[in-house]
Design goal:
- This protein is α+β, with helices and mostly antiparallel strands and 162 residues long.
- It has 2 domains: 3-68, no CATH class; 71-147.
- The protein has 3 helices and 3 strands.
- It has helices at 41-44, 50-67, 70-146; strands at residues 3-8, 13-20, 23-31.
- The radius of gyration is 46 Å and the shape is rod-shaped.
């Protein structure tokens, strides 16, 4: 039984080798399809080049198929989708809560504040002033009923005496 190994070579070309314990049985060369390469081998095969990234992707898929159980990919995808769905749900919930707060709660607060201001100016302040004036009149009435003088007497002094 042989293993198939793909080795990435220069621009647009990769070699496919079938290797067994008897040696190399088959060597095939074919051109890679795609216009995403730069055309410069140094740029394409560098650490961030297109060919290097394709080779990393291929090696990752190969590793997953050979060494990881099939449910690992399914559970990883489910976990990724659930996290994404959770983030999207959280963002949507925040938008809904902001809209509720903006359109209901803030309007209610503004209504209560304006109502309180109107009550203070048109009801509470006049009633408070009336009660203060009434209290002063009651105090004056009590003083008169006790026989106390409402006003203090003034001592008149002539100009020549001073």
């Amino acid at each position: 039984m042989g293993k198939k190994l793909t080795i990435w070579c220069f621009n647009y070309i990769h070699a496919s080798y079938t290797i067994s314990h008897f040696g190399i049985l088959h060597v095939g060369w074919f051109a890679s399809v795609g216009d995403d390469r730069e055309g410069d081998p140094i740029l394409d095969h560098g650490l961030f080049g297109k060919t290097y990234l394709d080779a990393l992707r291929w090696e990752g898929r190969r590793y997953q198929t050979l060494y990881l159980p099939p449910w690992n990919t399914i559970t990883y995808m489910a976990l990724t989708y659930s996290r994404t769905l959770g983030i999207a749900f959280n963002e949507a919930l925040m938008q809904v809560l902001k809209a509720i707060i903006r359109h209901t709660l803030l309007r209610f607060i503004v209504f209560v504040r304006s109502t309180n201001e109107w009550i203070k100016e048109h009801i509470a302040l006049p009633v408070a002033l009336f009660l203060i004036m009434l209290w002063e009149k009651i105090k004056d009435l009590i003083r008169v009923l006790r026989g106390e003088d409402l006003y203090q007497s003034v001592v008149v002094v002539s100009v020549g005496e001073v």
